[in-house]
Amino acid sequence: MGLYEELKVKFPEVVKESFLEVDGEVVVCNREGFLDLITWLKQEKGFIHLIDLCGVDYLGYKPKTFEERFEVVYHLFNLDERKLLRLKVRVPEEDPWQYSVTSLWKAANWFERECFDMFGIVFKGHPDLRRLLMPEDWKGYPLRKDYPLFSEEEDWEPYKALVEKYKRRG
After folding, report:
1. Distance CA 53, CA 155 (A)
2. Are 86 and 20 contacting, i.e. CB atoms less than 8 angstroms apart?
C-alpha cells in the first residue's frame, strides 16, 4: 500500500486528494485533523525533517479548482528513504488560520511567523506569533496579491519612465 492509500485509510476525514509532482508526492489535507496526520507522519513514517513551511495566495489564479484563497504548504523529508512529501492545507480568506506545528518542529516557529507576517495567516497554538520581517506597526501583508505596490501619495513618474525604458528594449 502506498503512502497516500495508507493516509486515506488512517485519516479519511483529513485527506482530500493526492497527486505526484516531479520531486515527490503531494497530499492535500483538511485543516481539521491535520495535526494528528502530520504527527503520525513524523513519529510513525519517518518524516522527521521539516524543510519548509510557506504560504500561497491564489487570488486571481485562473486554473484554480477550489474555493479557498490561501494554502499553507509543508515540505517534509524522510531521511532514511530519501523521500519528499508536500502537504497542502487550504485556508479560506474569511477565516485565515492554521494549526501551529511548533510543538513538533522548533524551526516551524520562524516559518510560521514569516507566513503570518507576509500573508496574514494566523497559526493557532504558536508560542510567539508576531511579525518577523516587517515592523510591528506595518499595515497589511506584502505577499498577498491584492497588496498595493505603492501608496497613492507616491510619485509614479520615475517608475513610469523605467517601464517605458524596458518596453523599448523589447
Report:
1. 36
2. no
Lowest mean pLDDT across 56-60, 69-73, 82-86, 154-158: 154-158
Instruction: Judge if pTM exceeds 0.85.
Output: yes
Provide the residue range defining the domain that includes 64.
3-169
- Sorted by sequence, the CB contacts under 8 Å of residue 43 that are 6+ apart come out as none
Separation in Å, CA 124 to CA 45, 112, 165? 25, 10, 47
Contacts of 105 (CB under 8 A, 6+ apart): 50
CATH value at residue 35: 3.30.460.80
The answer to whether residues 45 and 38 touch, using CB atoms and an 8 Å cutoff, is no
Residues in the chain, overall count:
170
Of 120, 128, 79, the C-alpha closest to 100 is 128
Please give the single-letter amino acid code of residue 117: D
| pLDDT tens-place string over residues 24-42 | 899 999 999 999 999 999 9
The number of domains in the chain is 1
Rounded to whole angstroms, the Cα distance separating 7 from 40 reads 10
What is the per-residue pLDDT across 75-116, written as a single tens digit (0 to 9) for each?
A: 999 999 999 999 999 999 999 999 999 999 999 999 999 999
